């Protein structure tokens, strides 16, 4: 089955620790995105990548870092510089070559709690 | 002004009724519009996309687009309790990068 996987589903960390969230897709999509969602709010774009080895900051990139070494993978690191890291993190992908490139498909999400 | 605005709700409708969800957007250049359904604790699921003015029907769902008024809506006919979720409106962000702006969502409750 084609899809997007994120791991882990739940993640607990102590304040001051960096943590990396995994996102893998086998949809052969070129573009991948990271969002965070806080209660009662919409999705806010953290980083996005249109092709391998290239990525751009979204609206709230401070305190986060990403890499895109493979087409299938787009891991997100939440660093200790992120002031309010507790949130629901969603990875998405879209195809630039078939269908509408703005049509995004989401993974199941990772719920990060930092105490 | 928010780029994509939705009434947060909750919108409560009885089972079998029509639920009407609305969304306005600020960028006149946007050409692609989407509705996602998000169950509590889950990730968003794409349910409708619309690109041209007018109506687009898919089963019990109808998306309506009016670019002149910068308005998108989603109608759910014969609403079922399983339709209870938050519905997110998403709009193409003009300016490159294939980015999309999401509204905060409208919570829908369908009462049995």
Give the integer mean of the pLDDT values of chain B.
94
The ordered string of helix (H) and strand (E) elements of chain B is: EEEEEEEEEEE
Residues in helix, % of chain B:
under 10%
Order of helices and strands of chain A: EEEEEEEEEEE
| Strand fraction of chain B | over 45%
Rough outline of chain B = globular
Would you tell me the structural class of the helices and strands of chain A? mainly beta
Write the layout of secondary structure elements.
The complex is a heterodimer of chains A (115) and B (112).
Chain A: E1 4-7, E2 10-13, E3 19-25, E4 31-37, E5 43-51, E6 54-57, E7 64-66, E8 76-78, E9 87-94, E10 105-106, E11 110-114
Chain B: E1 4-5, E2 11-14, E3 19-25, E4 33-38, E5 45-50, E6 54-58, E7 61-66, E8 71-76, E9 85-93, E10 99-102, E11 106-111
Parallel strand pairs in B: 2-11
Antiparallel strand pairs in B: 1-3, 3-8, 4-5, 4-9, 6-7, 7-8, 9-10, 9-11
Structure description:
The complex is a heterodimer of chains A (about 120) and B (about 110). Chain A is an all-beta fold and about 120 residues long. In chain A, about 0% of the residues lie in helices and about 50% in strands. Chain A has no helices and 11 strands. In chain A, the strands form 2 sheets. In chain A, strands 2, 4, 5, 6, 9, 10 and 11 form a 7-stranded mixed sheet that branches. In chain A, a hairpin with a 5-residue loop joins strand 4 and strand 5. The radius of gyration of chain A is 13 Å and the shape is globular. Chain B has about 110 residues and is an all-beta fold. In chain B, about 0% of the residues lie in helices and about 55% in strands. Chain B is built from no helices and 11 strands. In chain B, the strands form 2 sheets. In chain B, strands 2, 4, 5, 9, 10 and 11 form a 6-stranded mixed sheet that branches. Chain B has a 5-stranded antiparallel sheet with strand order 1-3-8-7-6, with no helix packed on it. Chain B starts with a strand and ends with a strand. The mean pLDDT of chain B is about 95. Classes of the chains: A mainly beta (about 120), B mainly beta (about 110). The interface of A and B includes residues 41, 90, 96 and 109 of A.
């Amino acid at each position: 089955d084609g899809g997007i996987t994120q791991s882990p589903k739940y993640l607990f960390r102590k304040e001051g620790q960096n943590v990396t969230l995994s996102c893998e897709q086998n949809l052969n999509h070129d573009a991948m995105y990271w969002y965070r969602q806080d209660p009662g709010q919409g999705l806010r774009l953290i980083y996005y990548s249109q092709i391998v080895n290239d990525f751009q900051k979204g609206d709230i990139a401070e305190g986060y870092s990403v890499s895109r070494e493979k087409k299938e993978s787009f891991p997100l690191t939440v660093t200790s510089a992120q002031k309010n890291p507790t949130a629901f993190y969603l990875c998405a992908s879209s195809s630039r070559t078939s269908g509408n490139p703005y049509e995004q498909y989401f993974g199941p999400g990772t719920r990060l709690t930092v105490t | 002004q928010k780029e994509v605005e939705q009434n947060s709700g909750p919108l409560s409708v009885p089972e079998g009724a029509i639920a009407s969800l609305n969304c306005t957007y600020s960028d006149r250049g946007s050409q692609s519009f989407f509705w996602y359904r998000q169950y509590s604790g889950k990730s968003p699921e794409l349910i409708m996309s619309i690109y041209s003015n007018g109506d687009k029907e898919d089963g019990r769902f109808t998306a309506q687009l009016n670019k002149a008024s910068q308005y998108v809506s989603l109608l759910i006919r014969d609403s079922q309790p399983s339709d209870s979720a938050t519905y997110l409106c998403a709009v193409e962000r003009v300016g490159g990068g294939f980015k999309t702006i999401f509204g905060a969502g409208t919570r829908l409750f369908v009462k049995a």
